[in-house]
Specification:
With 229 residues, the chain is of the alpha+beta class. Among the domains are: 67-131, Type Iii Antifreeze Protein Isoform Hplc 12, CATH 3.90.1210.10; 140-227. It has 3 helices and 9 strands.
Length: 229
């Protein structure tokens, strides 16, 4: 009995004719970034942020340290008016600005002095704008008057130039005639504290008309008409 033999496979084929599979080459291990390099980058970023924060703090502190408090004007003040605490406010400015100003610590020396020129709200007080006495024009005096609603326009303010009108005492017909008493300038204005809605006004007027205007003002017979300066 003969034994059948099969020819040896060629070209690397298996005995059943199938081509054997080649094993895949081993994959290279992943390259890992050294942990030390990542930490170094984060530390550098932290140092930059810390440096910027420190610089901002130093700048802010230096800016605050280089400021000084001076006196500013809180509201408009007409020439010849005596300054009160309500006319003044504290204002911080940069030190060494070169401006002529009055230090806030000298406020007590400013109150009671006279404005030699008109002071504008929001401006800084200049010592050259102050005097130690009234600056009324020669032949001018200040008189007072009591006003009620209708005897002055809404918005009447210190510094307004006004025409003074007196309503004379009623005659036999029960009516009084309005008489012009010249012009003046409002130097002060305040509300009454007795709850009667009255207003007290001080007016710089000619000395010649002062007696008549003062008497009419005290009696409540004065009306004011705001005019152009």
């Amino acid at each position: 009995m003969s034994i059948a033999t099969r020819p040896a496979p060629r070209n690397g084929s298996t005995q059943d004719g199938a081509t054997p599979r080649r094993a895949a080459p081993p994959s290279a291990p992943p390259t890992l970034k050294p942990a030390g390099r990542r930490n170094t980058g984060r530390i550098a970023l932290g140092v930059v942020v810390l440096a910027l924060s420190a610089l901002a703090a130093v700048t802010l502190f230096s800016s605050a340290a280089d400021r000084t408090a001076v006196i500013g004007v809180a509201r408009d003040v007409p020439p010849g008016a005596v300054l009160t605490e309500g006319d003044l406010r504290e204002v911080p400015i940069s030190a060494g600005s070169g401006l002529r100003v009055v230090a806030a610590e000298d406020a007590a020396d400013v109150v009671g002095r006279t404005a030699s020129v008109g002071l504008v709200a929001g401006s800084l007080l200049n010592p050259d704008q102050l005097s130690d006495g009234p600056t009324l024009a020669e032949g001018t005096v200040v008189v007072g008057a009591v006003l009620k609603g209708g005897q002055f326009p809404v918005g009447l303010a210190i510094g307004d130039s006004v025409e003074i009108v007196e309503t004379t005492a009623p005659d036999a017909t029960g009516a009084g005639e309005p008489v012009s008493r010249g012009r003046g300038t409002v130097t002060d204005l305040s509300d009454s504290t007795d709850g009667q809605s009255l207003h007290t006004v001080s007016i710089a007027v000619s000395a010649e008309d002062a007696t008549v205007i003062s008497a009419a003002g005290a009696a409540g017979r004065v009306s004011l008409v705001v005019t152009a300066p």
